[in-house]
Design brief:
heterodimer; A: 421 residues; alpha/beta; 3-stranded antiparallel beta sheet; 12 strands; 36% helix; B: alpha/beta; 17% strand; elongated
């Protein structure tokens, strides 16, 4: 059972969510992904605070409170969802790539790698003496993937920030929002972190294909901002988006929205995508305020009345019951799902979407699987996230040929280890 | 910078889908160098993704012949295209995009951007607790699912080209969203770790100013957390109490005073000055735009991230550049 990237080795210098998701996806495709981390520089954006009190965890907010069993423990970075969500199947090595010993080991790994991926602050590689040309001199077949927020040169290279800020730069926050609220009260998303992953995977594989034909490695620069903007290309221009956002309203479908269902904070999304679906919706719900022959323009003009009519029907029903009735009746609908519901959903279970991976400190936990599947191969699904430096001896010994004495010297000097200094 | 790539040169792709997901898949593969044929759609949005693609009618004479020699065929499992799909050659890769996937109890259920996001994405936790949850706007779900399909197509073709064995790929919209880095995958693992569902939130984790603010000539996005307070005080000036004890800015009555001072400082300056001065001291303030203004932004223009399409209309560039190592100075 061959996988697309069997035999490909990836050096992973990525941080936070977008970059780490790229290298995990390459690992899903069969690549051997070696994460290279510093013991002396603690990456708090990726691994959370060095010390966290268990009693304060719940208040940390949706994206920062994910400590296994709600207990950060003595090594919170190993129990933190942000650090672990994109780490399956990876191996972890600690190296100080600025020191002489670290540089020698790192360049040894570069010489044996097919891909090096990074999304650090602008100039991260250059300041450490690893400009692209220097890396290609060591390994002309290397595919170097750089994923700046904006660009690697020019004025955007000086701009630092996280995904939600770049989403504002792109203007895409306009694509949704509540009417009547000021911009700083509209909700953030992390759409940029999502769009980087598949773009980078496709670019890396395309570059590997080109390398197979020409023998030459490549420099990939992937502007996370640019890729995100490309996704919203149809939204741009004053003539395309003159209206302010109106919740979940659409100019292309009606009714179209998220409607309350019975129970606390339960919702159903409905998209009436065509005249046929409008007739089907009117038939399932009954008592429609418009004729079943009403065209889109007429339905859009009656949005308020249609929303009230449909909302009354959904409010009397459980969201899953309404979902089934509408789908079976020929109407596009779906419940708004919470995480716990998805983790136990029968459809995703039947498709084996989730992976139950064993972590050495945390035990077996359910994690989202890949976004797509092939009929020819499955991902290995053998390892959850590695511990910091878990594979130092394995990688430096087996790959670079370091003997026990050399490994001991690196340990004694603090170069390699399994904890932060 | 020129955002161009050619790694998929010589790869022939036919997109038979009716939605924007398959069209965006073809668009991305074209940006990586593939030769792509797609079919015409009624949607005005579709014209934003057809630059460089060959567009023909769904019943065009010659489409069947293209399918028979295609390396990658993209479809959405509709009966209307089943006969065409069946013409693909044995070594081709078939990528099937559907809302819920090709198997399981909900196979065959239909989807839209809104409903796919509602089921798979982070909708339940997006927005304010006293209002309905919010989905991603426009067609951002469809284009994201299309990007997943493009990554899948590229990887599978890389294997098929070497082995001579074709494959079928199942892309489920709801699974693409559930595995997405737009918070959902992280929230699912967090729930798995803790048992906590994500709460509906506007996304800001800061008690200080976070979000889009008006400046003298436009908009900026301000990210401001507790560890920025001293730096911001030094930059703005006139707030020695907060500079000495940043914690005062996090609680009332200081919180309101501090936030207003930040808003006033931003409002009094042009965008370039706000961004330049803040970034220079490590405070991540970024230019912001509306959808109407973004394509005229000089920063984006200078970076080459806005280009003129084949119809003369301005549009975003691909954002992807691949340069052979031999050409890197």
């Amino acid at each position: 059972m061959s996988r697309p990237l069997d035999g490909v080795r990836v050096l992973d210098l990525t941080v936070v969510l977008s970059g780490t998701s790229v290298t995990m996806a390459l690992g899903d495709l069969g690549a051997d992904v070696i994460r290279v981390e510093s013991r002396h520089h603690y990456p708090s954006a990726t691994k959370g605070p060095r010390r966290v009190r268990a009693e304060g965890v719940e208040a940390l907010g949706n994206t920062r409170r994910g400590y296994a069993d709600r207990d950060p423990g003595d090594e919170p970075w190993n129990r933190f969802a942000v650090a672990n969500v994109n780490a399956r199947e990876k191996r972890s090595v600690t190296l100080e790539i600025k020191s002489d010993a670290g540089r020698a080991a790192f360049m040894g790994l570069v010489a044996r790698a097919d891909v090096l991926a990074e999304n650090n602050a602008p100039g991260f590689l250059e300041r450490r003496g690893y400009a692209p040309r220097q890396l290609f001199d060591v390994n002309p077949r290397l595919v170097l993937l750089r994923m700046p927020g904006g660009a690697t040169d020019g004025p955007l290279a000086e701009i630092r920030g996280l995904g939600p800020a770049f989403e504002a730069f792109a203007g895409l926050r306009d694509a949704r929002g509540y009417p009547g609220l000021p911009p700083d009260r509209q909700p953030d998303s992390m759409y940029m972190d999502a769009t980087t992953g598949p773009a980078a995977v496709a670019a890396v594989v395309a570059a590997l294909r080109e390398r197979d034909r020409t023998g030459s490695g490549a420099l990939i620069v992937l502007s996370q901002l640019g890729v995100m903007m490309d996704h919203g290309a149809d939204l741009y221009g004053a003539d395309r988006h003159a209206d302010p956002p109106r919740e979940n309203w659409s100019s292309e479908m009606a009714p179209h929205g998220i409607y309350p269902c019975s129970g606390d904070d339960e919702w159903l999304a409905v998209s009436c995508r065509s005249d046929d679906e409008w007739r089907a919706l009117a038939d399932v719900v009954g008592g429609a305020p418009l004729a079943t022959t009403a065209a889109l323009a007429e339905r859009l003009a009656a949005t308020t009345a249609l929303d009230a009519w449909l909302g009354t029907w959904t409010a009397a029903r459980a969201k899953r019951d309404a979902f089934a009735r509408l789908q079976h009746g020929g109407v596009t609908a779906a419940p708004v799902m919470r995480e716990g519901e998805l983790l136990t959903d029968r459809h995703l279970a039947a498709r084996e979407f989730f992976l139950d991976l064993d972590h050495p400190l945390i035990g077996v936990r359910r994690t989202p699987g890949p976004a797509w599947r092939s009929d020819r191969w499955r991902i290995a699904a053998e390892r959850a996230a590695p511990l910091l430096g878990e594979h130092n001896d394995e990688v430096l010994g087996d790959l670079l040929g370091y003997d026990q004495e050399q490994l001991r010297a690196l340990r004694d000097s603090g170069e390699i280890g399994t904890g932060y200094t | 910078m020129r955002w161009t790539a050619s790694g998929l040169a010589g790869v022939r792709v036919v997109d038979l889908t009716a939605g924007l997901d398959g069209l965006f898949c073809g668009h991305r593969l074209r940006d990586l160098g593939a030769d792509v044929t797609t079919t015409s759609r009624g949607s005005p949005a579709a014209t934003s993704f057809t630059d460089g693609l060959r567009v023909c009618a769904p019943d065009a004479v010659g489409l069947a012949a293209e399918v028979t020699v295609a390396d990658i065929v993209v479809d959405d499992d509709r009966a209307a295209t089943a006969a065409l799909v069946a013409l693909r050659r044995a070594g081709a890769v078939r990528v099937v995009i559907t809302a819920f996937g090709r198997s399981g109890p909900y196979a065959g259920y239909t989807g839209s951007d809104l409903t796919i996001d509602a089921f798979g994405g982070a909708v339940s936790s997006t927005g304010h607790a006293d209002r309905p949850p919010l989905a991603l706007g426009g067609h951002l779900v469809a284009t994201y699912v299309g990007a997943i399909a493009a990554a899948a197509a590229t990887a599978e073709w890389y294997l098929a080209e070497r082995t001579g064995v074709g494959a079928t790929v199942d892309v489920s919209g709801v699974e693409a969203m559930a595995a997405s880095m737009d918070r959902r995958a992280l929230q699912l693992l967090t729930c798995s770790y803790t048992g906590w569902d994500a709460e509906r939130s506007d996304g800001s984790a800061s008690p200080l100013v976070t979000g889009v603010l008006p400046c003298a000539d436009g908009l900026v996005y301000v990210s401001l957390y507790g560890w920025h307070v001293r730096t911001v005080c030094e930059l703005i000036g006139g707030m020695p109490a907060f500079e000495e004890r940043p914690a005062l800015a996090l609680q009332e009555p200081g919180n309101a005073t501090f936030k207003q001072a930040v808003r006033d400082w931003v409002a009094a300056r042009p965008r370039a000055a706000v961004v330049g001065e803040a970034q220079a001291v490590g405070w991540p303030v970024i230019p912001a735009n509306t959808l109407a203004s973004a394509l005229d932004d000089p920063w984006l223009d200078e970076a080459g991230l806005v280009q003129t399409g084949v119809n003369g209309r301005r549009r975003p560039a691909s954002g992807i550049s691949i340069t052979p190592a031999t050409g890197v100075a």
